[in-house]
Amino acid sequence: MANRERCAGRRADGEACESPFVGQDGYCDAHSPTRGGRDEMQRRGLMGALASRKPGGLDPDEIEELETHADVRQRLDLICRAVLTGRLRDGQAQAAIRACEAWIRARGEEVTMEVVGDLRRQVEDLKAQLGKKPAPKIGAWSG
């Protein structure tokens, strides 16, 4: 078995590091005085921990029922802040945004049906009013 170069550094307990991943200076990244050493390794560890942690998501108490378009705007603002602060991942945010879009479509259909119902009632009222009056003479001009 070939003898591989090992890190020249020492661990906190005083033992030799023995890492085979050494740079030109003879040290691993954790012990290298030119590549950041211990502080750099701690920074990398923190970055890895932050990248791998699961976001906590939104607290159910933060999520109000949607009743108006203003509520949807507030929800989208909440989603945006949660993504920017790392509380929601992109996929979670996209699903929440799609839910807002579905609410808007459903509300739009509901309003449309209300307007159509109102128009039908108005047409029926007009028909009823016209039925009580004599029909106008068509083609006869007075003047």
Pick out its properties.
mainly alpha, 2 domains, single chain
Helix/strand/pairing category: mainly alpha
Residue share in β-strands: under 5%
If helices are DSSP runs of H or I spanning 4 or more residues, what is the number of helices?
3
- How far apart are the termini? 119 Å
- Described by the principal axes of the CA atoms, the overall outline is rod-shaped
| Count of extended strands | 0
Task: Give the helix proportion (percent range).
Answer: 40-55%
Largest sheet: none
Q: Indicate the mean pLDDT.
A: 85
Structural Rg: 36 Å
Low-confidence stretches: none
How many domain units? 2
The run of helices and strands is HHH
Structure description:
This protein is mainly alpha-helical and 143 residues long. It folds into two domains: 8-53, no CATH class; 60-129. It contains three helices and no strands. The model has no long low-confidence stretch (mean pLDDT 85).
Please write out the topology:
Layout: H1 37-52, H2 69-84, H3 90-132
Please give a quick description of this structure.
The protein is an all-alpha fold. It is built from 3 helices and no strands.
